[in-house]
Amino acid sequence: MKNSTKAQNKLTKQEKEKMSNRTVLISSFAILYGILLLFFKKMCSYSGTVLGAVTFMEYLMWISLAGAMLCAAWSAYKEKKGYYIYSGMFLFVFLSILLILRIETLMDDQAYIINFGALVMAVIMSQIYYALRVHCKFTGWYKIVFLAVVCLALMVMTIAALEPKFWDFLRSIVRG
Questions:
Q1: How many helices (H) and strands (E) does the chain have?
Q2: For position 82, what pLDDT does the model report?
Q3: What angle do CA 51, 56, 59 make, to 5 degrees?
Q4: C-beta neighbour count of 165 within 10 angstroms
Q5: How much is the pTM?
Q6: Nearest to 101 by CA among 67, 70, 59
Q7: For residue 4, is pLDDT > 60?
Q8: How far apart are CA 64 and CA 91, in angstroms?
């Protein structure tokens, strides 16, 4: 029984290459988007460029929402799950810019910290997922622990975005 499930979990060379390409795509997206966020943060720190940065972020936010909806619709129409990754990336851009521009309970630095934390988690977890899948270990406890860590990270970032007292709690932990 164990050998048959292991044989089913084996990936072909083409599947490994496809997973590798997606891992590189997610990692490069996270790095490039992180650089763009740093650019926005720098632009917003100068009074002369704030309006341009905010306007550009507004356009990017709504274009990314439209892109997410278009990719999801196209994926459903073509019945291919591969387009959902693009939809997720567009949705992440929309939510991150929405967090920066619209959540009044957060200071700018806190919104950027949450976004950079999410980008770092995306890179790390995509690399771990790739390694687990390639080595046929994405089953049983490994899968449960991986999904638990992802859910925990999402929960912490959501609480950090919605609850202003979370930052006071973090400061109290750091100070001891």
A1: 7, 0
A2: 77
A3: 125
A4: 9
A5: 0.80
A6: 59
A7: no
A8: 7
